[in-house]
Design goal:
alpha+beta; about 35% helix; eight-stranded antiparallel beta barrel
């Protein structure tokens, strides 16, 4: 299984138009026939005016086959793509390998935090080892949704996704985690391996399987 994380940066003020086109014209012909949509979101904090999607495929060969079929879908290429391209400023994607099983929240009403950490060259495996070992401690406070390593795009990166009830819940959880002695010990070892940390807060789109 591989995952593809895609981020579309929209012209300011065009997010509503894009979401309407995506929900009404883009999603019906695509469905889950051309890859499995795991989640889709808009950015609330971080880089604004972005639409972020997470897709899963059996492997890179299947991804190539399904995306070729999608480009040949008449509704997709005639009615959808020509209408969204003029309101896009940038497109970015990453191919990810899962380091822990994807665990979608069973219920709705969440915000999500997508965190991207870049490690020193050659240190990603070491950082992941520390992180997986501390995960039982971290998950006493809130559950991890997904943990991945980049395979294509910016290398030496780890991506992890978390769900919270709201921003107050996120703040309360992170305050409690910061006081945990085992977590503090983890930070002492793992933070030294990082060169960059980024975070965006996401709100689920209406068509997102994760809510």
């Amino acid at each position: 299984m591989i995952y593809e994380l895609r981020a579309y940066t929209l012209i300011p003020g065009k997010q509503g138009e894009y979401l309407k086109l995506n929900a009404e014209i883009g999603r019906p012909p695509r469905g889950q026939k051309y890859g499995t949509l795991e989640g889709s979101w808009t950015t609330e904090f971080g880089t604004l005016n972005q639409f972020v999607t997470l897709w899963s495929y059996a492997d890179l060969v299947e991804r190539e086959r399904l995306r070729t079929e999608l480009q040949n879908n008449e509704v997709w290429k005639r009615d959808y793509v020509p209408r969204i391209f003029p309101i896009l400023l940038a497109m970015e994607n990453k191919i990810l390998s899962a380091q822990l099983p994807l665990k979608s929240p069973a219920d709705g009403g969440h915000i999500y935090e997508l965190r991207t950490y870049r490690t020193q060259v050659g240190k990603t495996g070491e950082w992941l080892g520390h992180f997986k070992a501390i995960m039982p401690v971290r998950e006493k406070y809130s559950k991890n949704v997904g943990l991945w390593q980049t395979e294509v795009a910016q290398l030496n990166e780890v991506v992890h996704l978390w769900a919270y009830r709201d921003l107050n819940d996120r703040a309360a959880v992170r305050a409690k985690v910061a006081q945990d002695p085992e977590w503090q010990a983890f930070l002492g070892k793992a933070t030294l391996l990082l060169v960059e940390m980024r975070s965006i807060v996401l709100t689920p789109a209406l068509a997102s399987p994760m809510q």
